[in-house]
Amino acid sequence: MIGRLRGTLLTKNPPSLLIDVSGVGYEVEVPMSTYYELPAAGETVQLLTHFVVREDAQLLFGFATPTERATFRALLKVNGVGAKVALSILSGLSTDEFFAYVANKDTVALTKVPGIGKKTAERLIVELQDKVDTFTVALPAGDTAAAPSSAKAQAEEALLALGYKAAEAKRLIEKNTTDDQSVEEMIRAALRSIRL
After folding, report:
1. DSSP notation for 46-61
2. Which of 45, 47, 48, 92 is 20 to 30 A from residue 25's alpha carbon, by CA?
3. Predicted TM-score (pTM) of this structure
């Protein structure tokens, strides 16, 4: 098992990273909550990881905090929730928000996350209700050198990777961002607008 990586962050292309660890480049997928915390390319980064082996792939997922990784692992145990949906949940909601919605049985809030329909939201609530006490529950309270057009394109690509349709990703970025924002700020603003 690979439980932690520490190395040089080579590239950031949401939600994927390339991290050089002693000459070996690891491709890691991260939720947007972790992506926002990353240093600039070329700097040292340390992530907790979860390694998944499937018949057709070996995947590595990275997290900034133990709580994010534990939530990701809890989500993978829910019937019908795979790694892509789990990343989408952690990208759209903080762990506190997610477990607050589960505790309050708020299916409407959960269905605002891409890839989560009503049945999946209900299943999340039923299967994770007993884990709410394990996590701290509080009710919800970049690359700035890129050219504006390329920053918007990168932000749209990040939303596409999270499961949004192309037209919706473009609309969210155009409606909720400005040219002077970094890629991370654009993604954050677009995701925040969905929760409102």
Report:
1. EEEEEEEE-SS-EEEE
2. 92
3. 0.68
Write the DSSP string, 48-115: EEEEEE-SS-EEEEEESSHHHHHHHHHHHTSTT--HHHHHHHHHHS-HHHHHHHHHTT-HHHHTTSTT
> Are 130 and 82 members of one domain?
yes
For residue 153, give the CATH number of its domain.
1.10.8
DSSP line for 3-22 = -EEEEEEEEEETTEEEEEET
Closest CA to 50 of 32, 33, 25, 74: 74
Task: Kindly list the averaged pLDDT for each block of 10 residues, start to end, along the chain of length 196.
Answer: 91 92 95 91 94 89 92 90 91 87 89 89 88 54 37 78 78 84 83 72
